[in-house]
Amino acid sequence: MALINYTRPNRDLQSKNFSDILDEFFNESLNYRNDSFMPSVDISETEDNFEVSAALPGMNKEDITVDLENGRLTISGERKFENEEEGKNFHRVESKYGKFKRSFQLPDTINEDSIVAKYEDGVLNITIEKSEEKVKKQIKIS
To answer: What are phi and psi of 42, to 5 degrees?
Structure first.
């Protein structure tokens, strides 16, 4: 049986930045390696915060690392496939296993000291407060 990579329908290229399209292209091409996987990440913004959610089911929080360096947020870790049960033969394994690393450049308007990461029910939620001091302000021309 041949497995075919599923591509989500309704991918709207017009609403994406060029860098997002390139990231997606290269991330998906690297996703075919057997020793790694690419978790799904949602990034949203509220008036006061940026919120990052990464789907990491079946992992322990000790296996996940969140780093911030030079304004780049990096989420990395490893999901291990444990096949130690005797008498159990797998007929299909669709879950992805292996090492992963996702990086995102954050805007200059964040408060780096306010980053909070929580892992619950297989989802890593990261909240990053915006810094009012760094928010872009319009200057009146005289």
So the answer is: -115, 135
**Interval 70-82 mean pLDDT:** 88
Is this prediction's pTM over 0.85? no
Contact, 77 vs 59, CB < 8 A?
Answer: yes
Cβ contacts of 19-27, under 8 Å, gap ≥ 24: none
Percent of residues, the chain, with pLDDT higher than 90: 39
Coil, strand or helix: which one is 140? coil
Encoded amino acid at 85, one letter: E
Residues paired with 116 in a beta bridge: 127
Mapping DSSP onto H, E and C, the string for 39-92 reads CCEEEEECCCEEEEEEECCCCCHHHEEEEEECCEEEEEEEECCCCCCCCCCCCC
**Rounded CA separation 25/29 (Å):** 6
| pLDDT score at 16 | 65
Virtual CA dihedral for 25, 41, 94, 98, nearest 10 degrees?
A: 80
Note the CATH number of domain 39-80+97-134: 2.60.40.790
